[in-house]
Amino acid sequence: MSGVRVLVGTRKGAFILTSDAKRERWDISGPHFAGWEMYHLKGSPAEPNRLYASQSSGWFGQIIQRSDDGGKTWHQPGTPPGEPTTAPDGSPKGESNKFAYDTSPETGKPLTTHQWYDGTPHPWEFKRVWHLEPSLTDPDIVYAGVEDAALFRSTDGGQNWQELSGLRGHGSGPAWAPGAGGMCLHTILFDPSNPNRIFIAISSAGAFRTDDAGKTWRPINHGLHSLYIPNPTAEVGHCVHRIAMHRSRPEVLYMQKHWDVMRSDDAGDSWHEISGNLPTDFGFVIDVHAHEPDTIYVVPIKSDSEHFPPDGKLRVYRSRTGGNEWEALTKGLPQSDCYVNVLRDAMAVDTLDKCGVYFGTTGGQVYVSANGGDRWAPIVRDLPAVVSVEVQTLP
Amino acid sequence: MIRVTLPPHLRKLAQVDGEVTLDVEGQVTQRTVLDAIEARYPMLRGTIRDHVTQRRRALVRFFACEQDLSHEPPDAPLPDAIATGAEPFMIVGAMAGG
User: Which residue is closest to B12 within chain A, CA to CA?
Assistant: First the structure.
């Protein structure tokens, strides 16, 4: 019987929630990596028992963890304890938590500064991995979006990481600036129909696309309008919070921006607003129904300074028309005195016949709807603040 | 034999309980002790000092013999009591809440 495995990253550890296809009774495993910030966990589409996790700490930095058995056991995919740290030829073995920016003149061009909050140049400094995106076809290939914004790739199961430096080096890097959460690369989307095309998004630089497998990149922000930057229609500088696509229609992208919900029908070449009748168009998450490419979900948040739902009512909004016309989904969600946030990586959908929708809150709740959003129920209520939610649909 | 104490998070990563004991060749300094730790426990590389710059991470402190050695040069000899194993070299997470 099929089922689902929900991977939850929180401020103080990771949790794995499993259920059969009914999604009514849940087994809770965790906390894994207790006490660490778990920004993101994600399974390989090619090998579901291969999981990657980003474990980090302000004290001890970045760790990458890997599981090859669906989260029962974990290890750091670098050099195992007791083994020499260098290969017989003297070269260092894998250091799975080493994210070194490419500074070589040939490929790194060497980029040394981006913009700080006050507009002054600031050195590029690695802080943490925000998002891990395993390849659609090879479980040993995985991409990492990091703060300060850059894209890294491992082709050996997370042992070694190399920067795809064409992104930072494409020209606008020195003008990128951090958002309130840091200058993070938080969205990585592969085009299932074109292995050379990848979309990424950075707060606060905007969205970018490569059509040559990561060698070169270009900003895809035409149509975005951001009043909080000097030139509201600038090529870069937009605070994109999240982008989503349906795998059957990869040229259509949906975006939750700092303010505004946006849509592109041409792979990001141009965007138009689809906020429509939303009570507020500020928010972080956006996702697409697994079987209905025009059905999308957002969680409106009051404003950029008041990170909680309007009127203390936690409402998911669904559009069945690809935007503009939205309905509030409230059954099973708290409709008074609710002041949690839903962070950008904290919504996911499964691919069961009746599409399941999941999201986590900064109050530690993880909610599921097993019927596309019509009715919601908490899987857990009292976790640490939830940073990320991913779901795997298991055979 | 050098004795080293690690903070709980790093003990868990290294899969060790209690103190770690290490052989350090040559002069006993912060750098040679950390080199020995990272050689024995490669999963700790990057957690105590930065991979690239080799500088101590900002919220990690080094104490020994009731002294704060965090700001000593990495190649300065550590006290004899550390070198002889009479006292442990303590790697501590800074008290910063959380």
Answer: A33
Over 60: is that where the pLDDT of B98 sits?
no
CA–CA separation, A134 vs A124, rounded Å?
25
Nearest chain B CA: its distance from A352 CA (Å) = 37
Sequence spans of domains, chain A: 3-78+93-394
Q: What is the pLDDT of residues A3-29, one digit of tens each?
A: 999 999 999 999 999 999 999 999 999
Residues with Cβ within 8 Å of A310's Cβ and at least 6 positions away in sequence, in order, are A279, A280, A300, A301, A302
Q: How many domains does chain B have?
A: 1
Q: What angle do CA A322, A326, A328 make, to 5 degrees?
A: 135
Q: Specify the CATH number for the domain of residue B83.
A: 3.10.20.30
Is residue A304 pLDDT above 90, yes or no? Answer: yes
**How far are the Cα atoms of A23, A148, A338, A343, A362 from residue A312, in angstroms, in the given order?**
27, 33, 4, 17, 14
Partner residue opposite A97 with nearest CB, options B46, B57, B93: B46
B-chain CB neighbours of A93 within 8 Å are 42
**H or E element at residue B80:** helix B80-83
Which candidate, A317, A339, A338, places its Cα nearest to that of A329?
A317
Residue B98 lies in a domain: no
| Domain A3-78+93-394, architecture per CATH | 7 Propeller (2.130)
Residue B72 counted as domain residue: yes
In a domain, B39, yes or no: yes
Please name the residue of chain B whose CA is at the shortest distance from the CA of residue A96. Answer: B43
Q: What is the pLDDT of residues A222-273, one digit of tens each?
A: 999 999 888 999 999 999 999 999 999 999 999 999 999 999 999 999 999 9
The dihedrals phi and psi of A123, each to the nearest 5 degrees, come to -60, 145
